Amino acid sequence: MSNQPYEGRHEAYDPYQQPQQQPQQQEPQPQPEWQQHTQQWEGRTWEAQAHTPVPAADTAYPAAQGYQAYDEPQGYGGAVGAALPPEAPARPWAPEHAPAAGEAPGAVGPADPSRPGGTLPESPGEAGAGYGPATVVGQSRISDAQRARAEGRSPIIEPGMQPAALTALLALLLSGAAAIGEYALVVPLVLLQAVTAAGWFRLNGMWPARQGIALAFLGAVTADVALLAAGRENAPAAILGTLGVWVLLTLVLQLRSHADPDTRMYGLMATVVSAALSIIAAGHLAAEPDAVTVGAAAVAVAILARALPLPTAASVVVALLAATGAGIAVGGMTDLGTQGAFLGLGAGACALIGHRVASYDYPSRFVHFTAGVALPLAAAAPAVYLLGRALG
To answer: Average of pLDDT values for 181-208?
Structure first.
C-alpha cells in the first residue's frame, strides 16, 4: 500500500492551515512491544514459511474399527486409517478438548457411558482418577509371566518331558559310573554341579552372572577334591567345611561390591544358595556306590513319571510308586536288596521337591533345561547319602 497522502480526497481538511509539503521517506514508526514479540515468534516457526495446504480429508480422525493387530508395526500415533481401541473418543479432537496449560495430558478419563453418545467429560475435574497419561506408541508387549499374573493363573510351569528325559539320562550316567568307581563318578557329577550353579541363578532372574556361577562351581569342585582326598569316612567334614568357607568368601566379596544394599543382599543369597546346592550335590560322591546306583535310578524313573500328562496329584503318586519300584528292582542287583525300596522312595521324594522348585515363578525354557534338569538330582543327594549309610 502506498504511503503517500490522499491529497485529492482530504485536501480541504487541514486544521493547522499549513502548506502541503512533498512526501518524504518516512521513518518506520516504532511498533508496540506485543507486536514485536508476535512478529519475532512468528518468524522463528515453520508456520511463517509457505507450505502446500493439507486437504481436510487427510486430517480427519479415523473411524474406530477395533483393536490394532498385536504384531503390526506402530508409528507415531498409528498410520492413517489404523484401527482404534473401543475406548477411543467418539468425537474428533478439537482444540477446545485439549488440556489447559499446566494440566497433565492424561487428566481426561475414558468415555462416560452415562453421557449421550459416550462422549468424554467436559471438564478435567469430572475425569476419573487413576488413569495414566495418554500414549502414542500403542500397547506395549508383556511377558508370559505378566500375562499369567493378570489372568490369575498358577505360577507353576513344569519343565515337561524333554528336561525330564535329560534328567533321566544324567541320572543313569551317575548310576552306571557309581558302579564303575568313584573317579568315573566325578565326570557326570561335575556336569551336574555346573548345571546346578547356572540354573539356580537363572531361576532367580539373575543372568548373566558369570562371577557368581564361577564362584559356586569352584566351591563344588573344591568339595569334590576334598572328598577324594579325605575319603568317604570324612565326607561330612569335607562337605560342611567347604560350604562354610564358601559362605564366608561370598560374604566378603559381596561386602566389597559397590551396588546398593538391596542388590547386594539379593546377590549374596543367590550366590550362597547356588554354592550350597552345588556343594551338596557332592553327596553322590560321598555316598556308598550301591546307594548311588539305586538312588539315581529311582530319580530317573520318578522324574519321567512326573512328566506324564496326568493331574498333579495323580502324577506325584505315580512318580513315588515308580521310584519305589525302581529301588526294589535295582536294589535286587546290589547288596541293598528289598531295602532299596526305602532308598528309592526317599530319593524320589527329594527329586520331586527339586522338580517343584524348578517349576516356580513362571520359569523360562532356559530354566527348564538347567535348573529343571539338575535340581532333582542335586536335591536327592542328601537322601542318597543318609539313607545309604543307614541301610548299609
So the answer is: 88
Joined together, the cell numbers standing for residue 249 give 568368601
Side chain identity, residue 343 = L
Rg (CA), the chain: 39
Q: pTM above the 0.85 mark?
A: no
Q: The cell 526305602 sits on which residue? A: 342
How confident is residue 152, by pLDDT bands cut at 50, 70 and 90? confident
**Cell numbers found for residue 160:** 515337561
Buried b (16+ CB within 10 A) or exposed e, 115-141: eeeeebbeeeeebeeeeeeeeeebeee
Site of grid cell 568307581: 181
